[in-house]
Amino acid sequence: MSSEASPLFGGNTFLEELIENFLDKISEGMFVVEAGVGAYLSTTNDPELCQQKLNEMIAIKQRCSELRHTIVTMLYTEMLLPDARGDVLRLLGNLFELLDEIGDDYQEMMIVQPLGLEGFADDFAELNAMATRCSQAAVLAARTFFRNPAAVRDHINDVRMSEDETDRIALRIKRKAFAVDLSFEQRTQVREATAMLDGLADKAENISDDLSIYAIKCAR
Question: Structural domain tally of the chain?
Fold first, then answer.
């Protein structure tokens, strides 16, 4: 974290480092899923790369779970952050849920073989990148909350703008799926992949909305 002491931790650098590591792993996991989804939905679908990214995601989720458990234990056993503890625990839980759900969705996606969606490769690449940008903006907003709660609002707008753009791309893909000649199975696959990535951005926006409230409470 920043060398400047966070107002939340009162100089407890070990707890700061744990939370920084947790946020690093959440961010890394989002990039891993982006790469995996991109490989799955590309015109040159690479099963080995998809499986590699899934294995990386499983390991990252395990590490995030361990870090979260350690942080929660410290908060209670050492009676840290009594005023902000509930908000911090909810934030960490929501961030882990964001990673956990997109990882599970990616794993479910891989069960079904891609059904020849070459005409959507560029659309999905754009949607994948924008949904990831939205989730990363939420992680950055969380980092800012722990460093300087008053500055959180500076990052929340990026989350909201990215979520809006994700919605627009998702709607365009859905309309395209019914404007071209696709089988029912292909349309279903398009719809499910689109909903997965659009849902990631929605969850990231929900986290940013909560962060705006947490930051206001810290400023009181």
Answer: 1
